[in-house]
Amino acid sequence: MKKKLLIRTLQGEKTSRVPFWLMRQAGRYLPEYRELRKQAGSFLNLCFNPEMAARVTLQPIERFDMDAAILFSDILVVPHALGQKLEFTEGEGPKLEPLKKINDIDFEAFDKKLSPIYETIRTVKKNLAEDKALIGFAGAPWTIACYMIQGRGDNEFTEAKKFAFSNTAEFDQMMEKLVAATSHYLIEQIKAGVDAVQIFDSWAGLLPEPYFGRWVIQPTQNIVKAVHKVYPDFPIIGFPRRAGMFYQDYAEQAGVSCVGIDQYTPLDRAICSFGSKVAIQGNLDPVALLAGGKTLEGEIKRILAAAGKSPFIFNLGHGIIKETPPAHVELLAKLVKAHER
Ligand code: CP3
To answer: What is the mean pLDDT of the chain?
Structure first.
């Protein structure tokens, strides 16, 4: 069997073609997703229906032939499995009952709640071509804590941050519990068959020094250690969004095999500063993909040129915007696949 292109890149190999997948590649910009989503009735019903979630996971691969599928689920199923009430309201995003303390974790109950997700993984693996990778994922403790405390989405998470800054010892304990839950969850996903995992720290950029180290790098490092204790060298992608000048520290200290960078981080400089230590993923502005045309073509070419021969995974700097025309994704797939290096 030929080794999967994405996994070879995650192991630091210089491949003749750049692998690609897109954050939020399964989702509302696809009519076939909207159809299944309607049948499911709600977003959470879709996440917890293994047969439907597996179909949604495979939809973008069938259309665009990406090198990896990402498990269809959500980062907020972890607070849900820890007993926090969660709902997604149409047009408004997630709502959780605000919670500042996590009880001792009952891992049996946790796995029971998440068992449909492990089943989705097994179902996808049966239907995914051998040369494609399946990526599992979880939210990083900091990002999950932001939603758990604030109870809804926000751009600044001031309430959550204020709680963390006013109750540092208590917050440290919460982070420890989230590290345990996340490590356990990722290990179970690996047992079920995923080929790599990504840790989404979407709100990493909200933390100043020294808290970036304390609540972004440290917890991630602890999760990586826990996973590697059971599965040594297992490929892990870390995505500390909007980490700015902290990206290098994260790349050097978190222990991940690959760092996802946002669209605000110049790829050529990221490669110079930490591209010899980890593989790099990301960088295309989701708005360039939304806009299409000459700007999209130009940006794809710039990124591929900047990547040069270094281990690089083509992706966005954040998730696909729901108004994105599928034809733009088709163009991206064509250009990235045609690029030889
Ligand atoms: O990438 C994929 O295709 C896999 C599935 C996936 C979803 N969410 C599906 C989803 C993944 C990996 C996520 C991660 C996620 N979820 C993150 C981290 C990445 C990021 O975007 O920063 C975060 C912060 C969440 C939490 C979340 N889920 C929010 C804030 C929202 C509402 C915003 C929105 O886009 O509607 C969601 C909902 C959600 N997650 C949708 C999808 C397809 C849309 C819900 C729908 O179909 O009704």
So the answer is: 97
Nearest to 270 by CA among 250, 288, 254, 299: 250
Determine which residue's CA is closest to atom 33 belonging to ligand 1.
93
**Residue 241 is encoded by which pair of tokens?**
């969004």
Cβ pair 124, 58 in contact under 8 A: yes
Give, using CA atoms, the residue closest to atom 2 of ligand 1: 24
Give the pLDDT confidence of 273-307 residue by residue, as tens digits: 999 999 999 999 999 999 999 999 999 999 999 99
For residue 262, the tally of other CB atoms under 10 A from its CB is: 22
pLDDT tens readout for residues 1-52: 679 999 999 999 999 999 999 999 999 999 999 999 999 999 999 999 999 9
Residue 100 reports pLDDT greater than 90: no
Phi, psi of 238 (to 5 degrees): -110, 135
Give the atom of ligand 1 at the shortest distance from the alpha carbon of 70: 4
Q: Is 211 an annotated catalytic residue?
A: no
- Set out the domains of the chain in order of their start, with CATH numbers: 5-338 (3.20.20.210)
How far apart are the two ends of the chain, measured CA to CA in Å? Answer: 23
Respond yes or no on whether the N-terminal peptide bond of residue 210 is cis (omega within 30° of 0).
yes
> Looking at this protein, which amino acid is placed at residue 278?
V
pTM: 0.98
Q: Is 8 designated active site?
A: no
E-assigned strand segments in 120-253: 133-139, 196-201, 236-240
28, 152, 302, 341: which is the annotated catalytic residue?
Answer: 28
Closest CA to 280 of 256, 305, 297, 245: 256
